[in-house]
Amino acid sequence: MVMQTYLEDFVVYLEAERGYSPATASAYRYDLRDLLAFMTQHDIPIEPQNATTAVIRKWIVDMFSRNLSAASIARRIYALRSFWKYLLSCEYVSEDPVARISIPKQERKLPKHLGPEDLQKLLEASKVGHYMATGWRNYAMMCVLIYTGVRRAELINLRLGDLGLSEATIIVRGKGGKTRVLPLQTAEQSEGGWRSKTKALTR
């Protein structure tokens, strides 16, 4: 059970030298123990030299057969890579069987979005206390966020002078100091409407 000892030493190393939280280090232990359990189940002595590339690939196939998600399998492979780098640095092993292991492709899911009704509810909620300057400010910010799709940081860094009410445009400063001009006019928001909503930003 030499690998079990190495694994516990690795967990201590993650906390003491890498500064990982106990929860994160325990997650590494949990993921790597799955490989040790697989080796035990298939009567493979739990020694580093027995965790060959072929064995690791069979372990991956086994995880897929247990309906683990590609993301979970990828996380365990990354954990194994880190573990083996540790073993190499300690000179417990001389070869890295994980180097030839590919990470399973993960399904890319489209981001969830709010429907028209949810957006309307969000706008209505932002108008709570709309007789106060902060209420109008929040409403104006939500309108800009929804109608232009700017990033949160870009929204926060907007200045009143960036709003071109006459031209119905807005100047946005993005990453790397890049600026872009976005249309502000929509069917719902007239110039007068924007002007009344942005007055609160100066209060």
Order of helices and strands: HHHHHHHEEEH
In what order do the strands lie side by side in the largest sheet?
Answer: 1-2-3
| Uncertain spans | 187-192
Question: Helicity level, as a percent range?
Answer: 40-55%
How many β strands by DSSP?
A: 3
> What number of domains?
2
| Reported CATH architecture of the largest domain | Orthogonal Bundle
The number of distinct helices, counting runs of at least 4 residues, comes to: 8
Could you report the average pLDDT, rounded to the nearest whole number? 84
- CATH topology grouping of the largest domain: DNA polymerase, domain 1
Quick one: overall form? elongated
For the record, give the distance between the C-alpha atoms at the N and C termini, rounded to a whole number.
Answer: 69 Å
Question: Would you mind describing this structure in some detail?
Answer:
This protein has 203 residues and is mostly helical. It folds into two domains: 2-100, Orthogonal Bundle (DNA polymerase, domain 1); 116-202, Orthogonal Bundle (hpI Integrase, Chain A), CATH 1.10.443.10. The protein has eight helices and three strands, in the order αααααααβββα. The protein has a three-stranded antiparallel β-sheet with strand order 1-2-3, with no helix packed on it. The longest helix is centred in the first third of the chain and has 20 residues, at 22-41. It is elongated and about 75 Å long. Residues 187-192 have low confidence and may be disordered.
Quick structural summary:
The chain is mostly helical. It has helices at 2-16, 22-41, 53-65, 70-89, 116-126, 133-148, 152-156, 191-198, and strands at residues 163-164, 169-173, 179-183. Strand 2 (169-173) and strand 3 (179-183) form a beta hairpin.
